[in-house]
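tool=predict chain=A
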Amino acid sequence: MLLGALTAIGPLSLDMYLPGLPAVAQDLRAAESQVQLSLTACLIGMAAGQLLIGPLSDQWGRKRLLVGGLAAYAIASLLCALAPSATALIALRLLQGVAGGAGVVIARAIVRDEHSGATAALYFARLTLVTGLAPILAPMLGGQVLRVTGWHGIFVLLGVFGVLITAWSAAGLPETLAPERRAQTGLGNTLRTMLTLLKDRVFLGYVLGMGLAFSGMFAYISGSPFVIQEVYGATPQEYSLLFGGNALALVIVGQVAGRLAGRFPMRRMLRIGLSVAALSSVALLVAAYADSPVAVIAALFVFVASLGSIMPTTMGLALDRHPEAAGTASALMGVLQFGLAGAAAPVVGLLGGTGAVPMATVIAAAAVSGLVAMTALTWGAGRAAHPARA
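tool=predict ok
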C-alpha cells in the first residue's frame, strides 16, 4: 500500500489540478500557455529528481532520501498554493516535481531490493494498478475539490498528502538496502554506473521497449479527447466512459500478467505484449485512414490494454539485470519513460492533419519502434546467463 501511494505521486501531481487550469490562468492573470508550462515544469522536475535521487539512494540507502524528498514535496506543494504569479508557480512546480521524483524512483528500487524475477513482476503489476487508475481518479478528485474551494485547495490537499505519506514512510518503512550492499559514493562512481547501464544493450532494449510504448500512451492521452469528442462527436461523458474502460482494461491485463509471470518466461510475455501493441497500433493507423470510428476505438482499446502487460514485465526484467544498482537503473528507466512520453505528446499537434491520423501515426511509430528496439537489443540474451530473466 505504501509503495502504491508513492507511485501515485506522479499522476496526482500532474493530473489533479488539470480541471483548475482555467481558474489558475484567470487568478494569476496569465496566458493559458504560460500556466500550461507549470505542467511541463513538473514533468521535467520529476524526471530530473529521479535521475538525481535514484543513484544517491544506491549510495546512501533508500529511507532517509525518501523521507527527505517527501518532506520537501509536501512543503513545495503547500508553497504552490501561495504562488503569487505564474512564474513563481512554474518554479515551485519544478521543485515539487524534483522532490516527488524521490517517491517514484525509490518505490521501484525497493521492490527490486526485496524481490526478483517473477515475484518482482507481480509487485510491479500491483503498481501498474495505481498507474492505470490514478490518472483517471486524479482529475475527478481535483474537480470535486474545486466545487468547495479554489485551485489553491488542490495544492493544499497535495501538501497534506505529502505530510501523511512522509509520516507513513518514516514510521512504517524499513531500510531495504543494507550498508554492505550500497555502492561507492562520489560523482565519478555514479557516472560509471550509469555508463555501465547504458552499455548494457539488453537493459537498454527493455527500457526503450517500455519507454517507446509508453510514449504512445501519452500520444493517446493528448490526442484522444480531440479525436473522440470533436471529430467523432462524442459527449464528454461518453469520452470519459471510453477513457475509463481503456484504463480498466490496462489494469486488468496488468494484474493477469503479474499472476502469469511465475508460470511463463517473462521475455516471451514482453515480446507478446509489445507485438500486440505494435499490431493494434498499425490497425489503428489503417482505421484512421479509413475514417472508421468504431475500428479506431476498438484498436485504441487493444493498444492501451496491452500496456498493462508491458510495464510490469519490463520493470522486472530490466531491474533484475542490475540489482546492485537498482536505484540508478530505476532512475534511467524513469527519465527515458518521462522524456520519451513528454516528447511524443506535442508531436500529435505538430503533425497537423485531420481526424485520427496524426494521433494514430505517433502511436504506431512509437509502438513499432518499441518492438523493434526491444527485439534487436535483447537478441541473444541467453537463458543460461540470466535464467530468472529469460
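The chain has two domains: 2-176, 199-377. Residues 383-390 have pLDDT under 50 and may be disordered.
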